[in-house]
Amino acid sequence: YSARLPIPQGTQSIALGVGSVFEWFELASISSSGLDTLKGGSANDERVQEIGAQFDQLKTHAPGIHECRGASAFLMVKPPPRENEQGPQMIEIVIRPLIRRKQQAAEIELEVAEPGHRSVLGKGSISKQEHAA
After folding, report:
1. Cβ contacts of residue 37 below 8 Å, gap of 6+?
2. Which residues contact 38 (CB under 8 A, 6 or more apart)?
3. What pLDDT does residue 37 have?
4. Pick from 28, 26, 32: which is nearest to 13 by CA?
5. C-beta pairs of 61-66 under 8 Å, 24+ apart in sequence
6. 38 pLDDT exceeds 70?
7. What is the structure's pLDDT at 133?
8. What is d(CA 108, CA 94) in angstroms, rounded to the nearest whole number?
9. Separation of alpha carbons 62 and 86, rounded Å
10. Is residue 79 within 8 Å of residue 14, measured between CB atoms?
11. What are phi and psi of 38, to 5 degrees?
């Protein structure tokens, strides 16, 4: 997958939450280039600038292969400084999913409470989204 994200003027960093979607993924590249490269022509001849990232709750197992230690894992990219003559810029993040995160289910008990009595009707599972409703 490839995500192209515009870099608004004055942006210090861009965070991408990968843990909510993936358990494992391959980070192929992160690069920066001008928005005009999307138009084609001579703008595509410009060299893209590879940039690095910082990781939170990610474990690197091999070059480019990352495990998300939780659903809140993310990577943060610090865009390169902009030169005055440059137009609008973007970053492109290329990743390959290896293992998608399964939907978390919470175990609940269905109860009917009467004064002085507690009766369990059964057990089931409910997704976090349903539980929040």
Report:
1. 43, 44, 46, 48
2. 4, 90
3. 78
4. 32
5. 64/26, 64/27, 64/28, 65/24, 65/26, 65/98, 66/18, 66/24, 66/25, 66/26, 66/27
6. yes
7. 43
8. 39
9. 35
10. yes
11. -70, -20
Name, in order, each residue with C-beta under 8 angstroms of 96's C-beta and a sequence gap of 6 or more.
1, 25, 26, 28
The pLDDT of residue 113 is above 50: no
| Side chain identity at residue 54, one-letter code | Q
Alpha carbon distance 77, 54 (integer Å): 7
Half-sphere exposure of 118 (CA within 13 A, CB side): 2
Measured distance between the N- and C-terminal CA atoms of the chain, rounded to whole angstroms: 32
Residues facing 55 on adjacent strands: 75
Give the length of the chain: 133
Instruction: Give the contacts of 74 (CB within 8 A, at least 6 positions apart).
Output: 15, 16, 17, 18, 19, 55, 56, 57, 58
- pTM tops 0.70: no
- Between 82 and 51, the higher pLDDT residue: 51
**Vertex 47: Cα angle to 46 and 49 (nearest 5):** 130
Which residue type is seen at 63?
P
